[in-house]
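tokens incoming
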């Protein structure tokens, strides 16, 4: 009898402890949800990946076209097509196999690219990722069907042009530049002024030492010695 009484008390104590643990867990979960909502409300949301593209369209952004001096540009994403022309004496790697480029100018088209790109006015500092197709001087190079292979360039490759037609997202790009900007109905000329592009989505080209944006931007800020211009779609 004493054993049965002890067993019943122990079981009841265990059940009470179990119910308490459930209540603590539920309270913790509820507090976590409230904290996330509070943080999102007062801090403009949570960007978990750093690559989130909002609802960028002609309805909530401004159309922009530029011809500007080239800053340091870094991209890290997937692009359907990338086309660029390299100077001679460069080389590429396909799955670690080195291919020399002996022509004075070598046109390369990559399809299904996923990776990182870093370039400036003079060189493509780095271009590395995976591709599904490649054309070299208009000749396709046979790859494994349906798969992807590694692709990279020789470091600091000189280039004459670079183009991604669409799918480029820049959350925030700040640099000092000179050149022209067409924004909806406005035309602006810059002379060594700082610009800040916020939430740009579209294409990017580098031709004849000029950086060309063709797409949409939510906000543009221009700061110079004698002026400050803020243009926003909001």
């Amino acid at each position: 009898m004493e054993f049965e009484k002890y067993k019943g008390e122990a079981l009841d104590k265990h059940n009470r402890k179990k119910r308490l643990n459930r209540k603590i867990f539920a309270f913790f979960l509820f507090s976590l949800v409230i904290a996330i909502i509070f943080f999102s409300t007062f801090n403009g949301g949570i960007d978990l990946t750093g690559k989130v593209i909002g609802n960028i369209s002609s309805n909530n952004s401004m159309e922009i076209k530029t011809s500007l001096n080239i800053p340091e540009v870094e991209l890290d994403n997937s692009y359907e097509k990338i086309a660029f022309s390299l100077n001679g004496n460069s080389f590429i790697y396909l799955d670690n196999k080195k291919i020399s480029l002996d022509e004075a100018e070598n046109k390369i088209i990559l399809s299904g690219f996923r990776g990182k790109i870093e370039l400036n006015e003079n060189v493509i500092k780095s271009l590395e990722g995976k591709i599904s197709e490649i054309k070299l001087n208009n000749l396709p190079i046979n790859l494994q069907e349906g798969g992807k292979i590694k692709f990279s360039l020789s470091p600091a490759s000189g280039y004459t042009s670079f183009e991604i037609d669409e799918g480029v997202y820049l959350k925030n790009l700040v640099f000092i530049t000179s050149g022209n900007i067409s924004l909806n109905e406005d035309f602006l000329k810059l002379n060594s002024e700082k610009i800040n592009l916020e939430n740009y989505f579209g294409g990017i080209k580098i031709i004849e030492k000029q950086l060309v944006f063709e797409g949409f931007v939510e906000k543009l800020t221009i700061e110079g010695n004698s002026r400050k211009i803020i243009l926003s779609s909001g």
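note: The first helix runs from residue 2 to 42.
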